[in-house]
């Protein structure tokens, strides 16, 4: 009886295992069938799409996770046809980007609503038509919905209001009709999108009143673009509740009534467009809108005098008020904004203007006003304004002579004959008044190249800048490939993804944008002979052995499932190939770190090419790479003579894998394969603190940013000392081991010399002296007794570096002694003017600097007992930051892989938002965090 029960249990277990294998195989089969249907419906898909395993690596532009398809990115591929209704079978899909394929037509299938894992849906610049399916409201994880430049018609689905994670809603340039949907007792609406920062709904046929319920104080919207529709009624007062707004465009509608007075509450708005409406009443008081730099209210019916307070807004650059009914006395006070470049009041009824001594001396246009009949007015004020597009601009060659190229090819700025990827950048709300200034375009080129720095891009070219009738600013763009005559499929997808997912952030003044890509006129898609050969082989095999395959199907299936089970087992035990005889001390105890093979990292770094090299040191080189998920990584590869013993290597891995803090560089994994030792870290793009202090990087550190860096590094060390279990002593704190991310957050790196404190080592660790001269604790050096206060000493040296930008030992002088000798506490800034770094901002108030120096000198006391603990250092720096006018709690937020643009007082919307992506290669993944 007992044997029968055991046999029954065994059979049941085998049956359950079979079910698991069958479900996994079935899901993978669904992915394959979905891709086959996609391939059948679309023409010009990659020829490498052959074989039964799309996750096997040969299917271009398909990304997988755990043998499931998670992204399809086919940007500017020249595809034609329709999107298959079988797309629902790709149930793990997170990114679908078919942008810039103008010949994709037909309707968006309602089965798109079955892709419940979808995060990004980008169909920009295609030719979809018909209704946007209501099932799109099922995509609860959707962050980006970009359907710009298609031919969708009908109403905006109210179900979009169910997308609580939606960040970016772009339905512009379609033929959408009807009212803006808001929620009611039975249906959701756009007012429920409380996490959305972008409503781009321009150039449609939307009608009806703008519903007051659309806006609330709970929204974090920054871009509201509703221009060029058929909207009527008044601008609702509730708009003034959305304090986060930075761009408002209601122009080219049929809006009536007065401008709401509570727009004055919108202190962050930088561009306000209300032109070409039927407004009435006076210009309201806008003195609270201190960020406003572009005001356009042309072709309305505004009346009364122009308020003198309007011109005193501190960041105001352009005021366009022509074709109204403004009248009376024009008074531009001597306190007008120094930024003000243009005031256009053509065709109004202004009767008088006094040009006071020292008054306004920039461009003023009063053509077709009664004042122009007076002899006391400057003739230049009454001159017909010409379009302000400035002279034609074109990127100049980069110190080389352009060459004559064959048909279709173009000479790049670096004078190479290549086929560019081209299109038009359309900026939706540009505040720049002087478009004839070429420096704006050179700055734009630099920002573009920054966005492409990890892609196969050699150079970019801009030309033909214009402002069209709707005040959109357009400029032609050509992107030139590097290393070959044209972009292959992967390169095109990478470059297009930068635009379709808004990774490129334009400089201040250019504003939100979209990209219209030209059809790619060349065929430079790299198709390997191997993949084509596989197709031929498979075709022949299927034709000649179909009967044999049927007979062997069961055996083949069992073999494949066995191999899958083996691969799954290897993933569960990533150290199965750890060298048991390498003196490593056994398999390390890890938390979350992944074991990579040498071949994997070779693939992710383009064979460890020089292009991917981002640094080097005595240990070897650091390479930039990209995981298949799109995550950028930094790979520290030890050279042969610098290989650690297996025990030391394991120690560093174990330490890194169990410490998790925003101010510590995260370990992604490691490689201990083919005689190689490599550590795989998160990629921290702004280099080392030393690079920034020396001027090697382009990061400028003023006093406020230096305080932020000091606080971040201190918090990282305090975590190691006080919260790690067991506590960890870093042992090599220095400016080259503090990295800066995109927001200038400090991250402590390089744990190769770190020592954990065991239970029997509560006071110190007796160990061989290791570290870097100049940062080394003299007490540790003399006694060989390592304590947490040794890190405090090294940190104190870094603090002195932060204020002086000097090396710890420079020309035989030790920075600690130099500061001690120069200090005079009876004088301003302790008499340290001569040794302070000029880049710190000596012309500004350095609040808290004396307390900062006091703290640094306490950290470098000769006796460790007199030095503060790192937790106390953190508290003191937080107090110093409050003295300096910074909120230390606000500095605690951090996000990797973001992109920060330097902000000025007249900051632009794109400077104040966080819209982040982890991306690289052809398979990026989005990461969006509200800020």
TrEMBL record:
The keyword Electron transport does not apply. It is found in: Membrane. Residues 1-22 form the signal peptide. It is a single-pass type I membrane protein. The chain crosses the membrane at residues 532-559. It comes from the Eukaryota. ATP binds at residue 636. Belongs to the protein kinase superfamily. Ser/Thr protein kinase family. This is non-specific serine/threonine protein kinase. The gene is LOC115977696.
């Amino acid at each position: 009886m007992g044997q029968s029960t055991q046999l029954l249990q065994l059979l049941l277990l085998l049956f359950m295992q079979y079910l698991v294998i069958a479900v996994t195989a079935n899901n993978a089969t669904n992915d394959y069938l979905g891709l086959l249907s996609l391939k059948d419906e679309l023409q010009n898909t990659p020829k490498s799409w052959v074989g039964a395993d799309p996750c096997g690596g040969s299917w271009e532009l398909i990304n997988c996770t755990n043998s499931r398809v998670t992204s399809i990115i086919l940007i500017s591929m020249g595809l034609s046809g329709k999107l298959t209704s079988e797309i629902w079978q790709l149930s793990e899909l997170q990114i679908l980007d078919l942008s810039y394929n103008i010949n994709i037509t037909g309707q968006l299938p309602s089965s798109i609503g079955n892709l419940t894992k979808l995060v990004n849906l980008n169909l920009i610049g295609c030719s979809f038509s018909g209704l946007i399916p209501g099932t799109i409201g099922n995509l609860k994880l959707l962050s980006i919905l970009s359907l710009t430049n298609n031919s969708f018609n009908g109403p905006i689905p109210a179900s979009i209001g169910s997308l609580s994670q939606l960040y970016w809603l772009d339905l512009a340039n379609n033929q959408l009709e009807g009212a803006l949907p808001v929620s009611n007792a039975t249906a959701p609406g756009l007012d429920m999108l409380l996490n959305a920062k972008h409503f781009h709904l321009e150039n449609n046929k939307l009608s009806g009143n703008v519903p007051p319920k659309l806006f609330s104080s709970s929204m974090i919207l920054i871009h509201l673009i509703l221009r060029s529709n058929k909207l009527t009624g008044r601008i609702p007062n509730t708009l003034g509740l959305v304090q986060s707004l930075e761009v408002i465009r209601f122009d080219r509608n049929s809006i009536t009534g007065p401008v709401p007075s509570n727009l004055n509450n919108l202190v962050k708005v930088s561009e306000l467009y209300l032109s070409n409406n039927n407004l009435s009443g006076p210009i309201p008081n806008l003195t609270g809108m201190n960020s406003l730099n572009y005001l356009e209210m042309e072709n309305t019916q505004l009346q009364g005098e122009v308020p003198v307070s309007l011109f005193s807004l501190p960041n105001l650059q352009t005021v366009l008020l022509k074709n109204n009914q403004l009248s009376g006395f024009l008074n531009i006070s001597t306190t007008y904004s120094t930024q003000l470049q243009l005031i256009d009041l053509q065709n109004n009824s202004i009767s008088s203007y006094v040009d006071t001594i020292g008054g306004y001396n920039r461009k003023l246009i009063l053509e077709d006003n009664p004042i122009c009949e007076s002899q006391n007015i400057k003739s230049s004020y009454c001159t017909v304004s010409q379009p302000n597009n400035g002279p034609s601009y074109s990127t100049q060659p980069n110190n080389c002579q352009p060459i004559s190229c064959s048909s279709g090819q173009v000479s790049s700025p670096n004078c190479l004959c290549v086929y560019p990827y081209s299109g038009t950048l359309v900026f939706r709300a540009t505040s720049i008044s002087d478009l004839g200034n070429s420096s704006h375009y050179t700055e734009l080129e630099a920002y573009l190249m920054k966005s492409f720095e990890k892609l196969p891009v050699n150079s970019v070219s801009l030309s033909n800048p214009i402002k069209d009738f709707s005040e959109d600013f357009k400029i032609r763009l050509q992107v030139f490939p590097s290393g070959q005559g044209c972009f292959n499929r992967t390169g095109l997808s990478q470059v297009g993804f930068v635009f379709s997912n808004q990774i490129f952030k334009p400089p201040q003044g250019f504003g939100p944008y979209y990209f219209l890509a030209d059809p790619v006129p060349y065929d430079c898609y790299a198709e390997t002979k191997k993949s084509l050969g596989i197709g031929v082989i498979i075709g022949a095999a299927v034709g000649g052995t179909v009967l044999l395959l049927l007979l062997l199907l069961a055996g083949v299936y069992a073999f494949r499932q066995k191999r899958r089970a083996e691969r799954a087992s290897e993933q569960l035990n990533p150290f199965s190939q750890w060298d048991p005889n390498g003196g490593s001390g056994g398999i390390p105890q890890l938390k979350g770190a992944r074991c990579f093979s040498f071949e994997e990292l070779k693939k992710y770094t383009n064979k460890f090419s020089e292009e991917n090299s981002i640094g080097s040191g005595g240990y070897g080189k650091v390479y930039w790479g990209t995981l298949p998920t799109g995550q950028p990584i930094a790979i520290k590869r030890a050279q042969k003579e610098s290989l650690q013993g297996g025990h030391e290597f394991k120690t560093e891995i174990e330490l890194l894998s169990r410490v998790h803090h925003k101010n510590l560089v995260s370990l992604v994994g490691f490689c201990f394969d083919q005689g190689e030792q490599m550590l795989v870290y998160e990629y921290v793009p702004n280099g080392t603190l030393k690079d920034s202090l020396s001027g090697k990087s382009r990061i400028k550190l003023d006093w406020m940013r230096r305080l932020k860096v000091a606080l971040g590094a201190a918090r990282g060390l305090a975590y190691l000392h006080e919260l790690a279990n067991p506590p960890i002593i870093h042992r090599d704190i220095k400016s080259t081991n503090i990295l800066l991310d995109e927001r200038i957050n400090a991250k402590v790196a390089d744990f190769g010399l770190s020592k954990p404190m065991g239970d029997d080592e509560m006071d110190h660790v007796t160990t061989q002296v290791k570290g870097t001269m100049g940062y080394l604790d003299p007490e540790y050096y003399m006694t060989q007794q390592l304590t947490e206060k040794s890190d405090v000493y090294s940190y104190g040296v870094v603090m002195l570096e932060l204020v002086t930008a000097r090396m710890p030992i420079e020309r035989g002088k030790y920075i600690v002694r130099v500061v001690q000798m120069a200090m005079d506490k009876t004088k301003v800034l302790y008499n340290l003017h001569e040794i302070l770094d000029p880049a710190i901002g000596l012309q500004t108030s350095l609040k808290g600097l004396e307390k900062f120096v006091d703290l640094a000198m306490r950290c470098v006391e000769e006796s460790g007992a007199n030095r503060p603990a790192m937790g106390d250092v953190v508290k003191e720096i937080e107090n110093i930051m409050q003295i300096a006018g910074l909120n230390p709690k606000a500095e605690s937020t951090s996000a990797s892989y973001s992109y920060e643009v330097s902000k000025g007082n007249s900051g632009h919307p794109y400077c104040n938002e966080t819209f982040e992506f982890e991306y690289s290669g052809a398979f990026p993944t989005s990461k969006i965090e509200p800020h």
